[in-house]
Structures are given as C-alpha cells and as structure tokens.
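[Q] Does anyone have a clean structure-token version of this?
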Amino acid sequence: MDKFEELLVNKGLYSSIDISEEDLDMILSLYHKAVLKKFKIDCYCTQCEEKRTFESVEAEVDTKFKGALISVPIKNNIFDDTLEKRYQGLLGNRYSVSFRCTRNADHILLFDLFATTTSQLLKIGQYPSYADISVGNLNKYKSVLRNEFSEFKKSIGLYSHGIGVGSFVYLRRIIETLVINEYEINKLDINVTDEEFKRQEFKEKIKTVSKYLPKVLSNNGNIYSILSKGIHELKEEECLDIFPIMQMAIELILDDIISKREKDEKERMLTGFLANKINEIRTENK
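[A] Here you go.
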C-alpha cells in the first residue's frame, strides 16, 4: 500500500502525507483527463459489505456526483511547464476526488483533499466516513468484544474526527476489560486474592494473568503503557499519529483470541469424532 492509499483509506480527517515533485504524476492521475492511468485503492465497500477495489473517476465526466468535482481549474498547458512549475501549480489548491466500486459503479467513495504550500497533502473530508469504512472491516470482532465492540467503534469514530486523546481512552478500556475478565475466569488458579489484584498497578495485573492472555498482549505490556501515556501526557497530534498502530495492536490481540477459539473448536470436533469412531469400531468388533 503506497502513501496515497494509506492517506485515503487508513487515516482520519486532517491527517496528511508529505509530497514532492516525484509525486506529481500520482496527484494528476487522480483527476486530470489528460492522464490515462487509473488510480485504484482497496477499501471496504459499505454497500457491498465486502472489501472491494475502487477505481478513480475522471472529475470532468463525473456529472452524477457534482460534489466530487475538482474544486479549482487546472490550466490546459500544465504539461508544457517545467516539472517544478507543474508541481508548484498544484500546491495551495483544494481537490475533490471520487472513486467507484469495480463491482458496482453506483457505490462511490469521495475524498476532499488540500495540497498545502508546505508540500503536504491533507485529507479534509470523505464519504463514507473513515469510521464507517473501518468498522465494516472489524465486524469479525463483534463476537469477541461483545459489549466492548461499541468502545472500539467509538475510538475509531473519535479518531476519524481528529480526536486523539479520547480515542485512546476507549482502546485502553478494551484492554482493561479483557485483563479483568481473564482474572475473574481464572482466579481460582491464580495465587492472588481479589484485594491484592485490586491494589496492583495495571501493568502488574497484566503480569498476574499473562498466562491466560493473548501472547500479543502478554509479550507487549507496553501497549497499555503507551495508551495511558497518550491519555495523560501526549498531545492530540501525537495520539492521532500513532492511533493506527494502537488500533492494529488491539486487532492483533483480538486475532489471537479468535485463532485460539477456532483451534479449540477444531480440537473439540476432532476429539468428539475420534471418540465416536472408536466406539463404533468397538461395537462392530464385539
């Protein structure tokens, strides 16, 4: 995934990427009819309810969705200028870009971008929202998180609106709930009383139940530390910058849980099948 697709698909509003003259053709390919190359991104389609490939649409011919048209005029002789002049001509302008699902052309993605004079491409709007696109990819975690799935959605929603510290609160709460639940389930096998467990710092709680936690969490207790530091010490911008990594950490933890459940279920099915088959064999041999 290149940095443009990363900005469009995996970053919230007001996120940005650095751009340079080397990116000129890429930027032009998003909207200019003189550029034949189509730009494609892979993204969850909220209408197909599946991950799909979307293809950029030439703004000049996209009349159905007028809000997706380019917001500034591009001079016809742009390709006659030097590379530097062509690039400088793109800065300081606002652009709107549209994509269509390759499975159903009526399914669209819209992105509003601004190329700053300091050579950054800033995402200032999109439809469907980052939260809608992201949550669609996360439905597989519903059965694991249950009531906490709403916490996950809230964290992503806050991030999509440029709220970093608040988004960390909900991610941290997911870890806290997981650790406390594991203690409650396994406390008869853990040599720590309820009172002792309550008095422990949370990093110590993670160590106490580490045997029962997903390895991603038990081996990386600093995930919780970083979330706590973000809530109490980091600025909004810093939290927003590292949120995608923290979201990925939570997903890896949940993936571990799902993988273990699937493995346990397969082992249960195998054990049951073998037991039944052995009984059949014994019955036949009598």
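[Q] Thanks! Anything notable?
[A] Residues 3-130 form one domain.
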